[in-house]
Amino acid sequence: MKLRLTNLRLELASDETELIRLAARKIRLVPEQITSLHIVKKAVDARKSDSVQFVYTVDIEVNVTKRIRFDPPFVVPIPVPFREQLSKGDRILHFPPVVIGSGPAGMFCALKLAAWGYRPLVLERGGDVDRRCQEIEKFWTLGELNPECNVQFGEGGAGTFSDGKLTTRVKDPRVRRILEQMVEAGAPEEILYLNKPHIGTDVLKPVVKGLREKIIALGGQVLFDACVTGMKISPGGVLKALTVRNQVELPLEVAVLAIGHSARDTYKMLFQKEVLMEAKPFAMGMRVEHPQDFIDAGQYGRFAGHPKLGAADYSLAYQDQERGRGAYSFCMCPGGYVVGAASEPGGVVTNGMSEHARDSGKANSALVATVDIADFGEGCLKGMEFQRKWEEKAFRLGGNNFNAPAQRLEDFLADRKSTDLDEQASSYRPGVTPANIRDCLPKEVGEVLTDAIRFWDHKIKGFIQDRAVVTGVETRTSAPLRILRNECLESVNTSGLYPAGEGAGYAGGIISAAVDGLKVAEAIIRKYREPEAGF
Ligand code: FAD
């Protein structure tokens, strides 16, 4: 008999071999009657700082003849694994499908198409992960930005240089398959059961390479330095060809547009081609850094620093009823670094990343407030122009060299420039320049964040402190527009074009973008038969 047991609790000092004893006690058996035990989920419960525990869900097999009573939700049958219902369509494809962009949406879409025999061609504007590392290092040390290959663009997409958090609010059976494929590509197995899985930039890089190799082994192709610069659409609204690097015209029937939220030139090209899009709200603000041991102490009390716990995270939210805006912490990176994430000359953008060990000694997180059409005006590209405007202000404020404007959190609240910040105050590279961050934020965003931070200081006591430093500006939280698609996930007015992932406005984060990429691949498979061999 097989069972799933939830809410098995272990103290930090206990060993996981104890689980079998706990499981047996829960169903009134002796440990010897449990023939196998497999951890399905492991989470930290730190709600009581005097008793931090691990909480497990396990699947077990028992060797008994007596019937064991189910006791939902603590003792339940093991759920039947998701079985995919998918069969190929009958429309003939004359050309392999093209996937534009090799972020999580593009990669998982291509992987699925390749596994089903569609031999996709992936076109990525940036370089492969190795060259990308070199270009990014050049940017972070010398301030020399490559607009085609940076933290936003290149193999693996925006998430490659990230904290590699693999959490998502999306409840979808595809999530499990995505994590399994990451493990097959080299990610640690723990991501399959940790409640908050994370792999960090150092692990993500080989995983991304592994996924690429798999796409190729399954018959796909991946081309780097292959920016899609144009599209040929028939007067009847049918996609006919793509232009690559303003030079090569590529005839096709199906293209997946998985371009991420920072491909502003591509958004503009789509606008000129009259592909239907609409502006959408997003959030903007700044990044805050604290000493990691302060965050650990706030979250884990006397257990802070315990080797089994690692660096603690936090999540904060605030609703400003009067101004009608929400504020929240975003993309929190324990033990990480603030990174320069610009993709255009003349604009400073902050974000956060970490290595798998999360051991930089600093905790960083974006603190952002919502902005919408009332802030940037009607028109589908207005949000994007609004982002650019504030990024340019931050660039000038930082000294026109990709240094980020920086300020003590206390000075931000007092609305005054910091005067005594040194280079080590922030982990942001290439460097920081003391400034008043409010000068590169919309006035109301600054005001809402001020109230929110005072509120959060009650949630994490001491959040406002002299070692907390903010840098800005954080604008690339999600896409500033949505590329409209129908129930078959195709563009509403351009047949053959499949907008996917974060840039299309249908996902936010690595895993949800990958899920969306899979859904789009399935939509293509349902409609078309794979192309004949020989193309
Ligand atoms: P992207 O990953 O943005 O990929 C789009 C790809 O398309 C890029 O590689 C780009 O070069 C390419 N492209 C664009 N235009 C063209 C064109 N015209 N022709 C050819 N190629 C093109 N999310 C998390 O879940 N966890 C995290 O810890 C996390 N940390 C992050 C840290 C940083 C520094 C950043 C920048 C993002 C982070 N995110 C994180 C967000 C996450 O990376 C994105 O949500 C996710 O990558 C979106 O996936 P995507 O495939 O839709 O787009």
From TrEMBL:
Where does the record place the FAD-dependent protein C-terminal domain? 281-477
Classification via InterPro entries: FAD-binding_protein, FAD-depend_C, FAD/NAD-bd_sf
| Official protein name in the record | FAD-dependent protein C-terminal domain-containing protein
Give the organism the record lists: Formimonas warabiya
